[in-house]
Amino acid sequence: MNDDDLQLAPRPRTADLLRWAEEQGLEPVAEAAVDAVLTLLELGDGQVYDGFPELSSPLLQQLLYERIHLYVQPPEEVSPLAYGAAVRLLIDHQRAAKRLNAKRQQRLHEEAEWQGELLVGLLRQPHLVTWPRLYTLLLRADGVDSADLDAVRAWLEEFRALDEEQRIEAFAALEALDQPEGVDGWGPGVLLSVGMATDGARLLLENRLMQRSYRNLAGLNALGLPMPQELAGDFPAFEAAVEAEALRLYGEWTVPGLPALLLTEYRDLAPEPGSTEIDRYLIEQGFADQYLAGLDPEDETFG
Description:
2 strands, mainly alpha, 1% strand, globular
């Protein structure tokens, strides 16, 4: 796999932005927050200018309101407010580079501040959590060394040995999440949403990585250079590389190696429902009439 050609891995200029902030005498921001913000913006819908993502109100909202809580469980030493602060730092950098006028700088600053505060609440919502984030919180609560993959795997084995009720009790005991309904709040609907959010988040990340690679490949085509082998005839290898990179990034934002373990060796601990499971849940919850109304009577599976 030739990453120089595919260029799947984002290359955020985290160190450069932090160095600039220090030179300007600005308040320091946690490196983990800056790196996550720059990476997710690079994989977003905006343009990149001189190595830094361009910001706008829609992109700022997309990042702080729709994306970060899907992927990032802030390290224990990093305040969730640091992600809004990292966005404001990028705004100041754009202003210094004359990419923003003073009025837009102030407006984006205000938006980043209140949406950064909103993010703090989003990160605490059980129905918005994903499996990698949830298990990251459990590992931290039990004091597991997240840098030791063998220790993480051993903990997962122990957690697998618990019955369903005991696992739910562990979820409900997490102080980092709001628990308005205690154990009862972790019903089938919430667990289903966790799996759906996880599946959707990973697929979205893979899609963004592919788009990033395609943009870089367009440059090769413009120069008349050949396509990388992975796209010239071995597309499954490209898809595998994309999935691996998505899981690596997910691990950087939670626990390294954990998302891959949950997707492979411990999939039973982190189920991602398909359409069959979702349909079954809707019927069991009494939505049979609405469900059947959406089916095609000509379909062979229609009852």
